[in-house]
Amino acid sequence: MDQRISFIGGGNMANAIIGGLLAAGYKASNIIVSDPYEPSRQSLEKNFGVSTTTDNNATLTHPNTILILAVKPQVMKQVAEGISKNVLQFKPLIISIAAGITIPDLSRWLKMGSTEEPCIIRCMPNTPALVSQGATGVYAPSNISETQKDLALNVLKSISKATYWVDKESLLDVVTGISGSGPAYFFLMVEALEQAGIQLGLSSEVARGLAAQTCLGAGQMLTTSTDSPSELRRKVTSPNGTTQAAIESFEANGFRDVVARAVKAATDRGDELGRILGAQVNE
């Protein structure tokens, strides 16, 4: 594919996206990454054959470029203001994966007094993107065309098995609560299953292996079956059997409420961190 794709920031998520893009048929010769750290640049060149630079503006020298901002939120204002002239000149489609940085803030830094709105899409991927199994929530404001949305989706499909649009930017905090933080919930569940298995006599290796594969297999059933989660659960829950005993214990101990409160806590913290970060970088 001949689409030009530029990255500012060459960390883990950028590496995952680049690997996915190349696997999907994008050309390494059309990809450039700006990163200040020489080891990161050397690794990108060696592993993917892409061009690298230390000059952020060197990533924006052509029209019809997709620019992926993959830097830490704390440096986003500095980065955005530094590339503002080139953004106004070449008008890239910008995809931001920086947590907590809102489109209004990013737009203001990029415009630097101009009245022209840059084209920005904000997304929230999660860490399974590092193994091309990510889930991503995406938001686009009204100035983004359907063609631009399709371009963004094609990029995000390189790391995500599930990509969903939300109709309000604030809902990305809920996405964080479900899928952004979600991998840790499953890691915790596997930890708990492993500990339970050890207490009942299994070795750590056996308990962890069984729990991890069960998590993986159940997830695959969820994504390939037409049955709802509740229907799948009922199918493996025989009356008066072992699974029913476990489910009844979960329910009696408030499992659903625990999950709901955890997701709400993550969502609220995401909103709070966004406001704190916005206040800090705008000082």
TrEMBL record:
GO terms for biological process: L-proline biosynthetic process. NADPH binds at N57. It comes from the Eukaryota. Residues 169-273 form the Pyrroline-5-carboxylate reductase dimerisation domain. It catalyses: L-proline + NADP(+) = (S)-1-pyrroline-5-carboxylate + NADPH + 2 H(+). Residues 4-100 form the Pyrroline-5-carboxylate reductase catalytic N-terminal domain. NADP(+) binds at I8, G9, G10, G11, N12, M13, A70, V71, K72, P73. One of its GO terms (molecular function) is pyrroline-5-carboxylate reductase activity. Its EC number is 1.5.1.2. Pathway: Amino-acid biosynthesis; L-proline biosynthesis; L-proline from L-glutamate 5-semialdehyde: step 1/1. It holds the Pfam family F420_oxidored. Keywords: Amino-acid biosynthesis, Cytoplasm, NADP, Oxidoreductase, Proline biosynthesis. Belongs to the pyrroline-5-carboxylate reductase family. This is Pyrroline-5-carboxylate reductase. It comes from Boothiomyces macroporosus.
